[in-house]
Design brief:
InterPro entries: TPR-like_helical_dom_sf. By secondary structure, the protein is an alpha+beta fold. It contains 23 helices and ten strands. It is about 55% helix and about 5% strand. A hairpin with a 3-residue loop joins strand 2 and strand 3.
């Protein structure tokens, strides 16, 4: 896999919990509908497509009603793909780096935007729970630096959202399995809960992970729905604080909620054993009501391109090849299909041929985010090779062309893909045109949107170090280090150490 272009597949993908596979003839009819926030495509029965769509719509409405700041603010539309049979689900199953036959779906992002694949098992409560759980993660962004307990607690809290018989949206229904688990296992200390990261045993160990998920849910449920004197305005301020801080102290809890760790532990234990589990009911007015999808049939060429797009993202390269070839065979003159073929070649490190196909595709349609970003990635691989981040390695003309294409991709909707900002930074930091703060402002915007993205962090750290501000580079890395995987932590630490040595030996390397 091309490490420059597809870093996002390692970072952004969020797995749900059933299976998938697809051929163009797997079901008699493929349907498509579009709303203000979603594009829905599937070969399931119409009522099953509507049912899966309603689960996500209701979760979005619930989260917006209580914590509107946690929602993504971009105008992107999420593509939701709903397979209608076992073969389709199998084709679209996520299997890069792992193969799990019980996946219920996943959310991920590529150059064209975010998309989800969900199963069509209808009324399964577990499927609904896991689907909404992962969708909340998607809304809160995997590359944010929100505290881990907040991400998982919010996902669990809203996973039980659904309409009651009267048509009201019910938020905060108790999770009997979580309550029973905590009564049996007991609560962990809050300092361990609040300090947990993705590499902590509290999160990764089977012995502790159940407690971590359940207690994160119980804590938020108590704050919002429990019998206490905490004003909801306090809760929202506390949640906003937790959204921007990975590490907590007891003083933070006391300042926001008026409780010490010991008091919080005793209070939550009482809520668990004797508390009343209240819930919130929301009247769904016309603005919040789930829209009835107006499903229209789509043709085979569209379906094959869709399958190719998904399999390119979630399959090993060789397994995705037949689907790329099927998309090309279905419509040889489709610029979108040609771009998919070019990206497949890019992943296979066939950079020259990939570059030629990207150029061919752009000549047919110059407004394709995939082709625009892919052509830049191919240019970088061809022209820079082992000279990445070497000032002067990319000449002025190539710099201008690459940046024009990347900013155009951003205008066309690629701004929700962290790879876009990584590529912009890489171009500037490899150019003979030394960047200034005004040029790097877009990378800071990318860091604000994806603060835990290792690629963007590396670009910013390198820029700051080259300016001579190595301390700021270290501080930047230190701020997000707890949110990174162990592999990313090691990579970033090594990069900073290399920069320190480089700075020490190159005293004239200022970009001011």
């Amino acid at each position: 896999m091309n490490p420059l272009y597809r870093t996002v597949s390692k970072i952004v993908v969020s797995l749900i919990a059933v299976g998938f596979t697809l051929t163009a003839s797997a079901a008699p009819t493929w349907w498509r509908a579009e709303t203000q926030d979603f594009i829905i495509v599937g070969n399931a029965r119409k009522h099953e497509i509507q049912q899966n769509f309603e689960a996500i719509w209701e979760a979005k409405t619930a989260l917006q009603s209580l914590f509107p700041k946690l929602n993504r603010t971009s105008n992107e539309k999420l593509l939701i793909i709903i397979p209608g049979d076992a073969k389709t689900r199998e084709t679209l199953s996520f299997r890069k780096g792992r193969r799990a036959k019980n996946l219920g779906g996943y959310f991920t992002i590529d150059a064209e935007g975010a998309f989800a694949v969900v199963n069509d098992t209808g009324g399964s409560e577990m499927t609904r729970h896991t689907l909404i759980h992962e969708y909340v993660h998607h809304l809160m962004s995997d590359d944010s630096i929100a505290a881990l307990w907040l991400k998982e607690g919010m996902a669990e809290l809203f996973s039980s959202t659904q309409k009651d018989k009267s048509g009201k949206l019910v938020i905060g229904q108790p999770l009997p399995n979580s309550i029973g688990y905590l009564k049996y296992k007991g609560l962990m200390d809050f300092d361990r809960l609040f300090q947990a990261t993705r590499s902590s045993p509290e999160y990764t160990s089977g012995e502790h992970a159940g407690t971590f998920y359940c207690q994160s849910w119980l804590f938020l449920h108590y704050l919002i729905f429990g019998e206490n004197d905490i004003e909801f305005s306090q809760v929202t301020r506390f949640v906003d604080f937790a959204t921007h801080h990975l590490n907590f102290t007891e003083k933070d809890i006391t300042d926001h909620l008026g409780l010490t760790y010991a008091e919080l532990q005793e209070t939550l234990k009482k809520h668990l054993n004797t508390g009343t589990y209240r819930r919130l009911e929301i009247e769904l007015d016309e603005a919040k009501a789930v829209p009835q999808l107006e499903l229209e049939k789509v043709g085979q060429a569209y379906v094959r391109r869709l399958i190719a797009r998904v399999t390119l993202q979630v399959m090993p390269e060789e397994e995705s090849r037949p689907w790329i070839e099927a998309a090309i065979a279905s419509d040889p003159n489709s610029p979108e299909a040609i771009s998919l073929q070019a990206e497949w070649l890019l992943d296979r490190e066939n950079y020259e041929e990939a570059s030629n196909l990207f150029e061919k595709s752009l000549a047919m349609d110059s407004e394709q985010p995939r082709a625009l970003m892919g052509s830049v990635a191919a240019t970088i691989e061809i022209k820079l090779s082992d000279k990445l981040y070497s000032p002067g390695a990319l000449n002025r003309d190539d710099t201008l062309l690459c940046l024009q294409r990347l900013f155009k991709a951003r205008e066309l909707g690629a701004g929700r893909n962290p790879d876009l900002y990584r590529l912009i930074g890489l171009v500037w930091l490899s150019s003979e045109v030394y960047p200034q703060d005004k040029h790097m402002s877009v990378i800071y915007e990318g860091h604000e949107a994806f603060p835990a993205n290792i690629g963007i962090l590396q670009d910013l750290s390198l820029y700051l170090a080259r300016k001579g501000d190595l301390q700021s580079a270290r501080d930047l890395a230190k701020k997000v280090m707890p949110a990174l995987t162990q592999e990313s932590k090691v990579a970033l630490s090594e990069a900073l150490a290399k920069l320190a040595r480089w700075r020490k030996s190159t005293k004239s390397a200022s970009l001011s």
